[in-house]
TrEMBL record:
It comes from the Bacteria. It holds the Pfam family Nitro_FeMo-Co. This is Dinitrogenase iron-molybdenum cofactor biosynthesis domain-containing protein. It comes from Salinispira pacifica. InterPro entries: Di-Nase_FeMo-co_biosynth, DiNase_FeMo-co_biosyn_sf. Residues 13-85 form the Dinitrogenase iron-molybdenum cofactor biosynthesis domain.
Length: 133
């Protein structure tokens, strides 16, 4: 089972990205990973980077993120990918991976759903990539 987390940098101690649709990178890991792999979306966004399709192709089963629009949630769930939102997220990827692996990360199915921008998949410009935070 692979898990994806939107992050701001392609390193293990990266800060978490505030929103799925504007994340420059996605960290990909499984339960036995000590180091994540990284998918770089920043350089491909102008070319129509579609993180949902990329995550499907990478056999990701769960996305853990701070915020996500309903359109992205629908696409991921239609592909069989579970969306989870940390109730009290650690600020960095390495801490999130550790808490996730130990089972101590308290996750919700709806606490990070973005509602203030309507029902779309945009990058939420003007909100610094943060939604409901």
């Amino acid at each position: 089972m692979k898990t994806a987390v939107p992050v701001l940098q392609n390193k293990a101690d990266s800060p978490l990205s505030g929103h799925f649709g504007s994340a420059p990178f996605f960290a990909i890991f499984d339960q036995s990973s000590t180091e994540p792999e990284f998918f770089d979306c920043a350089n491909r966004r102008s070319q129509g980077c579609a993180p949902v399709e990329e995550l499907i192709a990478m056999n990701v089963s769960t996305v853990v993120c701070l915020g996500m629009g309903r359109g992205a949630i629908r696409k991921l769930e239609a592909a069989g990918i579970t969306c989870r939102f940390p109730l009290q997220a650690p600020g960095r990827l390495d801490a999130l991976m550790s808490a996730y692996a130990s089972g101590s990360l308290n996750l919700s199915t709806d606490s990070g759903v973005c509602t203030e921008h309507g029902d779309h998949d945009g990058d939420h410009q003007g909100h610094a990539g943060h939604c409901r935070h």
